[in-house]
Amino acid sequence: MRPLTDTETQTLFSKLANYTGSSLSHLVAPPASSSLDPSDRYVFRLHQSRVYYVRLSLASFATSVSRDRLLSLGTCLGKFTKTGKFRLHITALDVIAPHARYKVWIKPNGEMPFLYGGNVVKAHVGRWSEDCPEHQGVVVYNMSDTPLVRLDSVILDTWA
């Protein structure tokens, strides 16, 4: 387990900024009103091409475990592909959702068709964030504010 290099950090932050926007700084440095010890901040660590979001104290304890014995640590945000691109995993949803800039809420009658791979019909949308640009990261919620999935927005015609 090691810290991210500069290019890896830039790739990761550009992907996260697609979903969180300017609140990306809250992931790295929690707000001053937080109950956490300032020296025990959250960091990003790389282990077997997977990026983990973990507290610094826990990451320092993990250095005593050998690399082949360490399976996972903290929250897995995603993995780097062989070409250097970063892919978010569904486990990153708990980290991204509170800081998401653009959100869409789906009505209960549209949840299951959407989760089984169907498109979102306009009648199934309960509400959404205003001014969402095309190809921007969006977090999809159900009406009880439980995050379901994250995806890229595609704006279609009203007749599509």
TrEMBL record:
<feature type="domain" description="60S ribosome subunit biogenesis protein NIP7 pre-PUA">
    <location>
        <begin position="1"/>
        <end position="90"/>
    </location>
</feature>
<dbReference type="Pfam" id="PF17833">
    <property type="entry name" value="pre-PUA_NIP7"/>
</dbReference>
<dbReference type="InterPro" id="IPR040598">
    <property type="entry name" value="NIP7_N"/>
</dbReference>
<comment type="function">
    <text>Required for proper 27S pre-rRNA processing and 60S ribosome subunit assembly.</text>
</comment>
<dbReference type="GO" id="GO:0005634">
    <property type="term" value="C:nucleus"/>
</dbReference>
<dbReference type="Pfam" id="PF03657">
    <property type="entry name" value="UPF0113"/>
</dbReference>
<feature type="domain" description="UPF0113">
    <location>
        <begin position="103"/>
        <end position="148"/>
    </location>
</feature>
<protein>
    <recommendedName>
        <fullName>60S ribosome subunit biogenesis protein NIP7</fullName>
    </recommendedName>
</protein>
<dbReference type="InterPro" id="IPR036974">
    <property type="entry name" value="PUA_sf"/>
</dbReference>
<comment type="similarity">
    <text>Belongs to the NIP7 family.</text>
</comment>
<dbReference type="InterPro" id="IPR016686">
    <property type="entry name" value="Ribosomal_synth_fac_NIP7"/>
</dbReference>
<dbReference type="GO" id="GO:0003723">
    <property type="term" value="F:RNA binding"/>
</dbReference>
<keyword id="KW-0690">Ribosome biogenesis</keyword>
<keyword id="KW-0694">RNA-binding</keyword>
<keyword id="KW-0539">Nucleus</keyword>
<dbReference type="GO" id="GO:0042255">
    <property type="term" value="P:ribosome assembly"/>
</dbReference>
<dbReference type="InterPro" id="IPR015947">
    <property type="entry name" value="PUA-like_sf"/>
</dbReference>
<dbReference type="InterPro" id="IPR005155">
    <property type="entry name" value="UPF0113_PUA"/>
</dbReference>
<dbReference type="InterPro" id="IPR055359">
    <property type="entry name" value="Nip7_N_euk"/>
</dbReference>
<comment type="subunit">
    <text>Interacts with pre-ribosome complex.</text>
</comment>
